[in-house]
Amino acid sequence: MWLTRTSLTYDFTDGANMGSGLGYYPKPIAPSSKITLDNSPAVATTAVAPSTSELPVTSGLPVTSPAGKTGAIVNNPGASIISSEEKAKIEDQKRQLDNMLSQIDELENLFKTKIARIDSKEMSPEIKLRNEALRGNTHLICPPSAKIVRIFTSSTFTDTKHERNMLMREAYPKIKEHCRNFGYEFQVVDMRWGVRDEATDDHMGTELCLRELRLYQKLSTGPSFVSLLSHKYGYIAFPRVILADEFESLMVQVEDPATIRLFRKWYSRDDNAVPPAYILASISTHLPDFISKDKNRQKVAKEEWWKESELMQDALESAATRVFDPETARKYIISVTETEVEEGLLKAEDSIARQAIWLRRNIEDIDCQESSYALSRFTECLGAQEKVEKAHRMLRELKEHRMERRLNPDQFFHYNVHWVGREGIEPETSEEHRKYLARLCKDFTDNMISMVTQAIRKRKLLHDRLTEECLQHIRLCQAKCAEFHGRTETLERIKSYLLDTSTTAPLVVHGISGTGKTSILAMSANLCKTWLNKTPKLVLRFLGTTVESSSVLPLLQSLVHQLSMLGNQRLRIGLTVDLLKVQLMVLLKQGTAECPLVVILDSLDQLDTSNNGRSLMWLPASLPPHCKVIVSSLPEEKYEAFPALKKLIPDEERFIQIDILLSTFRKCPTPLFLKLSFDEAMLWRSFDPPSRTVLQTTVRTAVDFLFGRLEKQHGRILVCRALAYLTLASNGITEAELDDVLSCDDDVLNDVYTYWTPPIRRLPPLLLVRMRTDIDQYIVERGADGVRVLNWYHRQFTEAAHERYCADDAHNKRLHGNLADFFAGTWANGTKKPYTNAKGEVMKEDRYVTSQPLRFGEKDYNIRALNNLSYHRLHAGHVDLLKKECLANVHFCVAKLHALPVEALLDDFTAAKAAFPGDLLIRGVLEALLLSRKGLQTDPDQFVPQLHGRLEDSETTAEFKQRLREYSSKVWFEPDVNILERPGGQLLHSIHVHASDIDMMTMTLCGTYVITVCQSLKEIKIWNIKVDPPRLLRKVTGKGQCTKVALCHGDEWVAMEVGNVIQVEELQTGKQCLDIPLKGRASAKTFCAAGKRMKTIVTLFRKQMNIYDVTNGSLMQTLTSSSDEAKFGAMSNPSGRDRYVGMTSDDQYFLSVLDLDSMTLMPAWRGFEKIPDGEGKFEEHEIEAFDISPDETYVVYTTLFTGEIVFADFNGNRLRSIPPAEKLNIRSINFTADGTCIYYISGSTVFVVNSSTLQEEDRLEHKIDYRRKHR
């Protein structure tokens, strides 16, 4: 059995009512022997004395926290009291300040108006960009938005080993930490580092290098290119693809038959390519031992390949110089390193080239060394003299005539060293070389940090948070439009909606997963200007793709901010969903005939469940003129959004269903299947055998086929782990996080390092780059926790990956543990992780992973760690570490409360309690947090005093309470009496329901749902109190003037009195069912639900009684009272059972009972006899509350004045009564479901009394005195 009551919260600094709440109690238990008084919802966090034992809590002034909440009372008789004159002076100063602020606001608005009139030609490019982004210009050229610094390191491989390893060990971690302090990620990809023979088999290395370089130039904030070019010109790449026309022209110039046979062996014409081209076969196609695990056989194959490739390379170079002009021929004769320098520096825009660095080492005596294999690793010296001289000549031209002229003097750093020993650079034996490497690291670190800092500051000045948000959605729109084809009919319907000036409802686009809703809305945004033949204000959001579009509160704040900027309005952005909804409705009115407003919100189902976002209570159902809103959603009920849309928008014409396409794909007719099939077919070459050109028949088999191909190409263990981490991640994973996690996974590294050990135990960057290249189009970047994370492009990929890589629970726990170790920083800050090498030896190596502090600087919190650490520890089953690092870690809890809503921490504890139900500490802290929720919402620093005051002293809590005491240097009171409700009692939860008094409340018979009404705020809310913690199910819209609610139709519907009608709607969905008339003045009418399963509505108006069938709204009977005693009104408070309905007269002196079976009203009787007052007059007592017994044989009622409780039959004959044994102030009285007990509320106590013996069975105590609160 559940009992309910209301509770009030006060601000003790000024006595203002802070709000109302719900308290939930379990079934009655033995009476408590200890009664305490809760003076406040929050305990003070600041005080003036460290020791509570020295501060008797007796009398004096309240000590308040920064949040204004009273804590203990400190004895201070000498404290001064502000006089009335001083108060008046303060109020006068306040008025003057308000006037000054108003003048400032007027000047600011005037200034904005002046600025808006400036011709756009006078604006800077940055201001133009911002204005166009705010207006939603989908044709805008968008700058990069990712908060990332990415560096491409270009070097020849064999001569810069020590430099690259030194940078990896010493420089990169420092720069990474510096970037972290700004909330930026730092990544360096050295495509030469860790390259294995398998990685060169398909000849993709050069293409991938250039692809990554171009990507870094686009994404990186600040520098993106570093060169280590020294004395070696480098390897000339063998072209993987040659256009057919060029290839055939080159072959005409090749005269040697053996060389021609080699070209025919290795190159095949692909007529599927556009234009046709010759494709170089992978090395293992003709030399399988090239990737053999037998070193000797591999060596033979490698020598054979290099011999044949050198012959073909010489022939290509010779032919190209004869056939083509110098520019066309260059791609056949320049080295990979020069190609990188051209892309990263020489051809780059000035802004990019200006931030490049050249670390230029010069070995002064290198020309004095004899030619040898060791020297050939530093400079070309072996082989044909002509080739050696050519390499030296091209290197000089690159360095002296191209790089030096492109770079400013402060962009390259000279280092002169000498050749030492056999290896040339030997820091192990040479002090000169050690100093050189140390100086190089310092120069690189200092200059990189300087450039990164300047770039981040400049970006902050140019791009505020709102502009970045708008740009991100414009980028996604452009990407979707680039791939869009067809859908003409659907687009025409959307166009018609935008041009229709008569409709005021939003437009809903819906369809199952994979039908292309996002692309359709993106194309609609792109075509808005063309369709309307004018430039609209376009507000565009693809929900779930950024941090601010993933939850309803930041989404509304972002929308309101953008709309206020578009309307040139200065607005203080609301902090609650309710206030933001009001602001949104006002701002939607800014559209005009010349400049309409269009709002597009894609994927409402992608909103998370916080603040009840998917209920769409915030979305306007009716729009002002010249405003259009287009939304999309999945239709499934489990995502909640679509049922809410059906309730919000009753007009079926405002819904567009996206049907599946392509009748030729009847087995799986969805665009996703077509895309997968098309992408697979794009890999087919005209010379492939039929066995390799087969399409799958379903989306799942197509995805599985894709996964299988990835495993063959990149190694099964690497692919399995990488995709498993991506799938198991709580809310996506960043590329840098995935790189770090894989670098700590020794199963992956042991497989990668089977026949080769790199200088640093990390995953070679090229391996992850190669894999992501092959799956990039099925991965989406979205915002989460303030960063850009990788996630699956589609739910079908998530499900397939779960089934393929995450089916084993024990295996998943290991991977969750690895992810948790990363977010805990277990292997960061130089901590070496142990592993077992190929010889069976246990070794330890630093993995150089990112550290994970709870805070970055003073203001920024590590949201990634705060959200992910507890999640992965829980799913790893690490209960002890979960408590140590998170739930019993005071620093973690306080940081999370500061950074995120209270519900985020409650969710952690709720999930932990479900996973580890026997853990007493987790359960106890969760119960304490639920009781402390209101205080923590006001002031996160209340965590320490709230938890310390609510947790009982026990062996379970002793260590945790000691951590609470040791947490902070702040002084706070530890009262010597219990002033806070503690877990383990009758009170389970305390919920902040409304910001003002609750006027009415009702609960379903099953105890699952509670309906609350707050008339002063015009709010009706429906709560699910069976979930832990209780959550808002929905907020009733459009019923703000409701004066009464009643559950009916088996608790499936709710009836609400609104004006002159009773509106009936479905409890959970809000779908309108029917209206029942209820005319008359509000003070003279009321109603209730009764009958079997509450399918009857009884309305009362003066002496008239109407009885309706709630299933169809028909009037069943009208009765009229002939007695003056039975005159009804708003104070009659009717209450119904299956057969009988009880009601008082409007003056509450008389009680009547209606028999629904016979449709007769029994005679009214007086509840309490008149009492002579000794002066010839009589004192009359009203019937404050009553209830009909569950067996419908008698009633119980009481009066507010004496507290007497009377049991009587339906004719008014007293059966028994309970005279007041103590002064009671009873406002409600009810039977329990089985009728064995009655319960009533008086002051701060719920009394439970046996209805037969009249003996008290239990008291449920609360620390708030309701009698005092309502006085």
From TrEMBL:
Gene3D superfamilies referenced in this protein's UniProt entry, alphabetically: P-loop containing nucleotide triphosphate hydrolases, YVTN repeat-like/Quinoprotein amine dehydrogenase
InterPro entries (alphabetical): NACHT-WD_repeat (IPR052752), NWD1/2-like_WH (IPR057588), P-loop_NTPase (IPR027417), WD40/YVTN_repeat-like_dom_sf (IPR015943)
Keywords (A to Z) from UniProt: Coiled coil, Repeat, WD repeat
Coiled-coil ranges from the UniProt annotation: 83-117
Domain NWD1/2-like winged helix-turn-helix: 699-809
Domain of life where this protein originates: Eukaryota
Keyword match Coiled coil: yes
Record-given protein name: NWD1/2-like winged helix-turn-helix domain-containing protein
Species of origin: Dreissena polymorpha
Lineage: Eukaryota, Metazoa, Spiralia, Lophotrochozoa, Mollusca
